Fold these 3 entries.
Entry 1:
Amino acid sequence: MSEVVWTTIRLAGLTTVLLLALATPLAWWLARNKSWWKEIIAAITALPIVLPPTVLGFYLLIALAPQSPLMAPFHALGIRTLNFTFTGLVIGSVIYSLPFAVQPIRNAFEAMGPRPMEVAATLRAGPLDAFLTVAVPMARKGYLAAAVLVFAHTVGEFGVVLMIGGAIPGKTQVVSTRIYQLVESMQFGQAHKLAAGLLAFAFAVLLALFLIERRTARTGL
Amino acid sequence: MSGAATVEGRFAGPLGAFSLDAGFSFPAKGLTALIGPSGSGKTTLLRCIAGLIRLPGALRVSGEVWQDAAAFLPPHRRAVGMVFQEASLLPHLTVAGNLAYGMKRAGTAQTIARDEVVEMLGLGPLLSRSTANLSGGERQRVAIGRALLSQPRLLLMDEPLAGLDAASKAEIAPYLERLHRALSIPVLYVSHDLAEVTRLADHVLVMGEGRVVEMRKGEPGQGEADASLAHLSAEDIRSLARAALKAGLKPQAGGS
């Protein structure tokens, strides 16, 4: 039981770290670009919100399969497929939770307006310097919200994980898929423990988010 | 006027519906007021000088090329200090952090000392404060100090008093006068309020409809206006007259 919790935490933690890094340039570009067609990219990144997880999982299953052209370059390295592996799960989770990272960070960058970056430029900060010392710290509330949402959303994911992970104990089995298996095999006692744990976790996350929101509204920080 | 002791340039080009065609030259010392009605392009010209807007043209500050046909220095490579109309302090830093931001990046030749600036602008009691609870006048003083400590060779001020109430204006005015006396770098000071700048200005540039229509020395209404009119076209003179009237200048009895 602790094994499945550890796999879940590892998956969610790794996904969160990767997504914050990945979403940063994308969110900045979406916040700063003025063309209308950037909304096409925005819509694509938001797709996982509305797609059924089984649809996403199905396409991922195909993309990570041995026959997939995306996997061809890795055959030389001895990697034929990423389906039913932890790495595959991380890739799936990153795509599945992408909108939950991009949206809050993009909003924070947009709320900032162009002025702080102009100020930084007239104070001799080059673009990257200004980005790291002004834009990112000013958007820290967006980063915090993104981190909490991505972590929680990854813990809560079921469909994608089941489709491409296969719930192999110790490798790709996470809490949500474990509960499903337990119920299928009528082990309600075990299922209760895990389900109650997830319920408490979800509540704690939302409470933390609302408290952050409240503090921000009060202090502006 | 030309050579090492001047700030001279020209920017021309469309910017949305607006079109700028501004040539200017002013001495690289003292305070030069840039006046004109709102919408005449004062802020746009300032942003071009800072490098925040890129329009075709040329700019030379004390002999150093900031922009010409071949080169364009981005804003962070220009030794320019900019005071925006809203103080635009960086909210995630304290007052001291704001002051240090440009100073840290200004390189080795620090001719404007932090202690002097803190003293001159009365910033001592504010240093450890967050920027959130400062008054309008305090914010603008911090913004001025921050710009000065980035060791500029040209200080640009875009209507720094425009957003302030009368009390804050009165509070900040003595600091500006002190600054004006103490500074060795040129200041280009934008205002649409003639009364605000006549006391301080050593030189005056008048803008109207995207053009610099007059450059002159000293008090408005005196000095070298006639000489600078000589090379202007009839259209220039018409827009100058419009700009001057809008800016609140009155025709003089018995003038040329």
Entry 2:
Amino acid sequence: MTEQEALKLRLNAVHFAMLDLHLYLDTHPGDCNAASQLEECRKTSASLMEKYESAFGPLNQSQQNTSRWAWISDPWPWDM
Amino acid sequence: MWTYEKRLQFPVNIKNTNPKLAQIIIAQYGGPDGELGASLRYLSQRYSMPYPELKAILTDVGTEELAHLEMVGTIVHQLTRNLTEKQIMDGGYGAYFVNHTNGVFPCDANGTPYTAAAMQVKGDPITDIHENLAAEQKARSTYDNILRMTDDPDVLDVIRFLRAREVVHYQRFGEALRIITDHLDDRNFYAFNPSFDRPAARAVPVSVSMPEALVSTAQEGTSSFVEAAPGFNRSSV
């Protein structure tokens, strides 16, 4: 596994954890422990994202990314 | 509104062409218990859902189902992208191929186009959440059946992930059902429909033609429609 693939895998894992915590918090909005876990994941995601994008270019997952070429370029997710 | 993230929720990298398997897995793209139906069901049920936690869970699970739809479409695409004419005939893929070539069409395993007839939006919170609990189990059973029919590890990993998500969604909808009943009278959860039988949904405006006795209860904040609802017991409110 390349360094790029490994970083992407970690990002995927963190984003999945964030989604799952987000769903849990829909039905448990008062759970402070889960809310702080989500906050931790957000921090991890932000630092991993910065690391990835500075080394391998934009991931097209942020509003800040304005590179038209990166957005339209192959591969699209189903072509990996 | 929605925005698109240019990635799959879980990676799909299938190396081996397998049209037979694609024809089975497409059931979860456009079939009766598939991801398209799941997403439309939850996103459509939101409008008549009165409680904030429920609006949130329907929105977020409905959105995740769209990500699953994309994953299932990707599986079908990757299982058929390098098809040869011989594989089409040998794999029993001729009927699908003549209609859709190697496009991914929302249909079930028999090729029947997607239909909303297999789902319900009842406009009654308890009924709709039971519909969703059943839908998650039907999807889980379908993934169980798919797991019986393949040993390709590239496919197994993805299907196992999708199956696990059905179980998590079932859990969340179970909690959602509890949140609904917490708002209702535990002596009769079915006394009225909290989405419809409330003052704003009053059948007849109070000022028009309501008998004296009902006007006084309506002014206490109780809907006249609720008074008349079947099985409704005034003393249980």
Entry 3:
Amino acid sequence: MEVFKHDKAIVGFMKNAKKVGIFSAFMIIASLVLLMTKGLNYGIDFAGGTIVQIQYEGKAPIEKVRETLTQNKAYNGATVTFFGSDSEIAIRTKNTSKAVDSDVSDDMRKLLAPTGSFEIRGVDMVGPSVGEELRTKGLLAMVFSILGILIYISFRFEWRFAVASVMALMHDVTIALGALALFQIDVNLPILAAILTILGYSLNDTVIVFDRIREGIRTIKSTHLDVIINESVTRTLSRTTLTSLTTFFVVLTLYLFGGEVLRGFSFTLLIGVVVGTYSSIFVASPILMWLNFSVSGFRENEAAQVKRQKERDKQRAMYEQGTM
Amino acid sequence: MGNLNYRVVVFFFAFLFGIVFSIPSLTQSFSNDTNQTKDSNSTGKKITLGLDLQGGLHMLLSVKKEVALESKLKSIGTSVKYMLEKEDVVFDNLKIDNNLVTFELLDNDDLSKVDKFLLDDFKNVVVKKSKITEGTLYSMSLSEALITETEETAINQAVDTIRNRLNATGLAEPTVAKQGKDKILVEVPGIKTAEEEQRIRSLISKPAHLQMMAVDEDRANRVYSMTEEEAKQYGDVIFPDVDNKERKYLLYSVPILDGSMLTDAKVGHDQKSNKPEIHFTLNGQGAKIFGDFTENAIGKRMAVVLDDVVYTAPVIQTRIGGGQVQITGNFKEREAADIAIILRSGSLLAPVQVEEKRSVGPSLGADNIKASSIALAVGFLLVIIFMIVYYGMAGVIANFALIANLFLILAVMSLAGATLTLPGMAGIVLTVGMAVDANVIINERIRELLHQGSSITKAIEQGYNNAFTAIWDANVTTLIASVVLYFYGTGPIKGFAITISIGILASMLTAILGTHGVYQWILPKIDKNRLGFWFGIKKEKGAK
């Protein structure tokens, strides 16, 4: 089966670069506004607090639970929501307790006893100091992976490629974070993992396109970057779309079947796969253009490198033959 | 058949390796029955399931350092008092306050004597002197080095003690380890009921500070009217009774002996009532002190105090030699057993507190396994079908690489004893989506070359060549992100980083080297007139 015909004409991606740029700028600004107004909804991993997951026999009497909790001083601010099914609820509170031998689940067992027969399936409690530590670590993880990637790509390509790919990356992450703010998803550790996966994934896509552009610079005669980009992006279009599709499939199955715990994680990835694919096709290459990447400059550089290498080889050969 | 080459041989062995070493993990069938894991221990190394998959209790504890420092200061105070008395120094107002041990030296002639033993016997203690109207005021504090050492000892000792206690319960494979500089990680898998969890928590939390203390019989009748402050002035403390909190005892604050002189503790039964009681054995020194004390205190009461609560306070009838002592009380069988465990395992220098706690019930763990397995199966099937439909035989070859990849992830994780968590399962699912990427890139390159009219051999060789740098660079960048995630992530997230990293590395082997080998091997079989079947290309007469 072939969806992307080989003889299909080269698509003029660069012609639309401006429109795409405006669209992306709009998305980024919208995301930033969302992040500033609504803000990220930090879950207990980062904000500290307690979640108790309770499963009732039959439908959970959520109103009764809420009522019981509001009457109790300690759990006044607790929020109660259904969790995955209508027999399960999650109780979230800001309270944490340092005592080893007593805990929120013991309290709940007593407090909620009149609401029906239930089982406490899980308790997560993160103290404020741990939450802070996890936040710092999370931020450091982001910074270091971006830094590592930047260095690697500069080393393998050229600094403009590195900057362009990291800008495309920021674009993706910002929009993904914007979506998290829009839907007020609990930002916990798995979400951080998802964001870092998006980093890797989006880069993966961009690198494949850039690799083709690098190859195009060597093989395509034109010195116009836009021509080279158009052809290279067109050539990788089938791969980009296919891989994105397979990844999208599996992430979608995670979202649909992976259970409540992985829902936020897979949702973030879904957004990331879509945005990452879009950015590697439409966003990353134009940035290269705007950074004044010069095809002839790159070729001269490469030629000079090859020349130097040849010179060195020649000298070594001469040296080995004893002529020097 | 065909050209056997090193690539296909390596691939074959990698495949075999993957299957052989993932079998032990697969046969344990992701069940959360911990008994079963114990039984099949002999069959080979297996993947450990994270607590989020098998259920259990995860706690991150910290030690109340200030208590450890305080008790260190107290022991310095005690030794200073002992030394001063031994050296016949006249002193007054020995106090422990504000992280300082202070006392007043009344006769300045003793200065050199005091300075000498302070210098000799109290290393790492900062001593300051100041003149007062008559004599000298000494104030001693812990040096930075001693503070660090004390805190470190407190945490290391807490790790050992908690580990001993949990091991003694016979529960399945509890983990107790120091995490970072000042945290203790406790993981207990396979907890089934709330009572079990409660029991573990109380085992961990008890300081288990055992003391034998003499009752201050001279003032005992005033205990109910006395304040704690007043008691302190007499060198006494007031502790409540275990069964009846209203009942109080006035005890000399310096104990006769404490739990450090204990060698064993067991549950025994009272011969008449058959009630459980705790029998413990003292070491030689303890037995002697205890014998001497009881000899001189016949007719008086002696209290057995555990964590500042009086368990029993019998009247001493006769000298008790041999170092055998019992604690009686209204114990339940389980409670008595746990107290014996705690006494045997030693006391905590400082109490612990919870910083993070995650408890997953077995049913939730099972649900997590089920959900993620379904996601893995469905995602895997979708990708497999897609590859076959889109690429024909080339897709089948890619699928072999994908299956080998899955086995390799499991095998490497089993051998490394890595832990599979829920995010780790998600990582495997994601790897399935991303590992085929390499083959998509390669297949697209091969098709491109075939369309340009290359021969099949050339298309395959050049296709792999052209695709290599892209795949390599893309994988390295993903690997960078996941390695960083491993170092900065905790618990379940580490599991995600592990599966992704192994998946990427394995895909280099299976998807690039492996499939290349397979092509070279079956090359003579590939029919250039059936490119639709082999590479999913519609134009059947493309190649020359």
